[in-house]
User: Which sequence fits this backbone?
């Protein structure tokens, strides 16, 4: 499991502060985990994370690779709001077995099991999370989710990471326009891969770049495709690539 960092946000303005920033409805933490993202004003991805209630406080569970950036960005936005941002000194635990009393369902997909936050690290984890992500089209921080990503192209609606009724947040205008006024021309899809091709390999249709191969497990992978070029036979390195469910 990628390393995670857990922040504790406290103060009377915590929920309203987050509600004006992130892509999902923060009030959903009353019922369990909420998955959300922080975007640029231009609607591009900055970070993704889980939010959960801890009494009156809010826990924010993010990739360790984004912890410093998130601390800086959130501190910049809070201005005079009554919000403190501190390390929670908690560790993320995950599992697919029966949910423990302190566990919460992963909101992205039922197959991803539960998450819990505990004062000691998880010492064993035999789950192949990459296989599960590929099977259920779950994007990963730093792989499918990069600074060039628009979250709707990354399937955030399907994995319950965005709420179109919650009101304004940073990047909301661009995200809403992509939802209601345009058809996506690029995005993440699941592909079958026959042959040797590593993640990051360009996907070609004839002599044109159609996309990029991303997370791979066995003969399947998540790919980012330009849909108008992803027609017919595609290749990635020495492998044949087929867009599953494309009907072509």
Assistant:
């Amino acid at each position: 499991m990628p390393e995670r960092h857990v922040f504790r946000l406290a103060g009377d303005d915590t929920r309203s502060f987050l509600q004006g920033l992130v892509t999902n409805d923060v009030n959903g933490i009353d019922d369990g985990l909420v998955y959300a993202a922080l975007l640029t004003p231009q609607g591009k991805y900055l970070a993704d994370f889980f939010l959960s209630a801890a009494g009156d406080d809010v826990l924010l569970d993010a990739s360790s690779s984004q912890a410093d950036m998130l601390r800086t960005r959130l501190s910049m936005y809070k201005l005079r709001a009554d919000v403190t941002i501190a390390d929670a000194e908690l560790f993320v635990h995950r599992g697919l077995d029966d949910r423990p009393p302190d566990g919460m369902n992963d909101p992205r997909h039922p197959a991803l099991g539960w998450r819990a936050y505990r004062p000691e690290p998880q010492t064993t984890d035999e789950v192949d999370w990459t296989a599960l992500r590929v099977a259920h089209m779950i994007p990963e921080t730093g792989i499918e989710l990069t600074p060039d990503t628009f979250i709707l192209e990354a399937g955030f609606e399907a994995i319950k990471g965005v709420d179109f009724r919650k009101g304004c947040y940073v990047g909301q205008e661009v995200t809403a326009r992509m939802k209601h006024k345009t058809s996506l021309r690029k995005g993440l899809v699941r592909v079958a891969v026959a042959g040797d091709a590593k993640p990051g390999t360009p996907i070609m249709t004839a002599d044109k770049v159609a996309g990029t191969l991303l997370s791979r497990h066995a003969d399947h992978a998540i790919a980012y495709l330009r849909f108008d070029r992803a027609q017919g036979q595609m290749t990635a390195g020495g492998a044949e690539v087929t867009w599953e469910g494309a009907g072509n």
